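Still learning folds. Look over my entry:

…
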Amino acid sequence: MTNPRTPILIGVGQVTEKDPPIDEASSPLDLIEQATVLALEDAGISRENLSDLTTLVVVKSFREPMRNTPEALASRINATKAAQWLAPDGGNGPQYLVNRYSEAIFSGEEDFVLLSGAEAMATGRKIVKSGNKPQWSVDSDKDADLLFADRQMWNDHELKHGIWQASHVYPLFENALRAHYGNSLPEHQIMMGELFSRLSEVAESSPHAWYPVKRSPEEIATATPSNRFVGWPYTKFMNAMNQINQSASLLLTSIEKAEEMGVDPNRWVFLHGASDVTDVWNVSYRENFYSSPSMKIMGENALNMAGLEINDIRHLDLYSCFPSAVQIARNELGIPKDDQRHLTVTGGLPFHGGAGNNYVMNSIAAMADKLRSDRGSFGMVTANGGYISKHAAGIYSTKPLESDWNRDTSPVIELTTADIRSPEFTETPTGEAAIETYSIVFGRSGEPENGIVVGRMGDIHDQQARRFLALVDGDADTLMSMTQEEFVGRKGKVWRDDDTNRFTPAL
């Protein structure tokens, strides 16, 4: 007999609101409420059941619309007795929350939990363009309580050298991957297009996708006025799309509470595997830029807990903010490049839409729907926050667990430089050096504006060579040449300009 405290997902709800008139558009709080109502309907229970919530957690919006969103939601849905939390930034957040609260439900610390979040950036942008400000705030006499302390993703030195905006940092991983594979620039560009074209195939048939359109590899890979480079080699279609209006909600509880509420067992989805791993925090100190030991550990732990191999997983949703995130996850999970399984059940962040920190709430909801229609199969959701920094995985199925739910690893494993071969780092490099990887930042005009270099004070293959960060010293022609020729491994000189490092590549 399955343990009555076994955690289960009983209800999911998703909302995508496209292009409503401004005076009819939903606020983020409205979207959260709508998704929650849909999750209730999905579970087959009434709104009155929300008064039994023991905890509700709202995932922080990119532009948090009010002082205390969890409090406003609790008041809106009559769940004021529930503990109310705001989960801070991080795309790993929704899956981390499922893992954390599943553990708490099994231990008896929690009984009935609502997880939700939303973005309304498309509507917000439209309102601002009309000359107004969104009127979404709800008064409160206190700030929202953060579920856990947030950490800044960069240090001061990294910030000085462009390491802060995701669309400029993830190209560092991509260019390192290209060099690691030994691909030419054209080969790699079309490979990324092919990878993301398959995501768009899924988006095409999704009822919730912001862009339900299949795009060809060439359309995705080729820079055009409507598909400009953002951080080279990424075009706009390779970037997570956050200018959307989307929300998702999940309802978690135990078997015994679900039975008490009269939830049909056919709606139950079990979490068979769970894992949370944090990589070496600062990008500067990673072992390299083409792999992720934290992702590897995440996958191994989740699969081991479920008693499965990666080939047992029929449905996948790999976090897809940028192509490098998908490739590294695929590589570390042991999924072959020619694997015929789709790598998303939604269409991915560029095509389904990336609702800020909340996208994975949508992918878990979509996975639950997929598994209910393919009963007994297994699905894996992965989540990624920061710069391939914070990872979470969940393995789901309608198939009941064969033994007690047991997470036998540390709730969150944190890697440090002691766990990897982290190179020595210098903040004050001068002299001959070489490019380990780089990123070229483009402006909206379609012209390159600046470049970021991760370099070594010697041969890039020498683990003992000191690593450094620098900005490219050069004009637009220099920057453009770095997008047309392979510059990984290219020699040059690094020098100090006040408190900033500059790198002049040999042309």
